[in-house]
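Hey, resending since the last one bounced:
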Amino acid sequence: MSARLLVVEDQVDVRHAVCNYLRLRGYSVTEASTGGAFVAALRDDAFELVLLDLNLPDADGLQLLREARTESNAPIFVVSGRCTEADRIRALEYGADDFVVKPFSIRELELRIRNFLLRQTLRTRQEDDAEVWTFADWRVDLPRRVVVSLTGEPVALTRGEFELLCCLVRAEGAVVSRRAILEALHDTGVLMGDESLTTLVYRLRRKLGRDDAGGALIETAPAVGFRIAVPVYRGAITGD
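The structure tokens again:
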């Protein structure tokens, strides 16, 4: 098992015990002891799974979880001694993929991780490969969550940017209202308001560039919403 894991835990003995065991099981493990280190690691690297403690010295784990869900699609297991029903429900509402209560068995934790990653792999293989969309010079592969140019150059999108793009390409050029976009983002765990959506659209526009005529690929329908401004095709088109 060579999956990349991020373990965020301020208790040194707990963090070392978990990380050492996971490394013995073949995982590649990065350690973080503060909220700041967690944010930096998540921004600078890609992880198959994150283990996040809620009680950190410089930040509240639930708020970190909520903010992370607007920037990253990495699966997150909350691992915490805060075991009230309210904490568990809030963590799941904010996008946690599982909630592990302290104290816990490290072996059981590793089995949960292994089974989760296995299901993720199987789900990816079983996804409908036809769920690929092409517009302008871009190909959006929804099952693999990859966006590349027709010449094969990838573009790095945040979780929110990717979910926004999915929402727009699935509309195949039709206008999608702001409300519908916000609801679709909410359903995928990306929580934001109307002003944040405007910023998200702006960022995605900059990353996608313009069409051959110099127009923006994402067009604003005033007082309504947004649409892809060029033809959108279902299926992959090669750049040959």
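The two ends are 37 Å apart (CA to CA).

Sorry for the duplicate.
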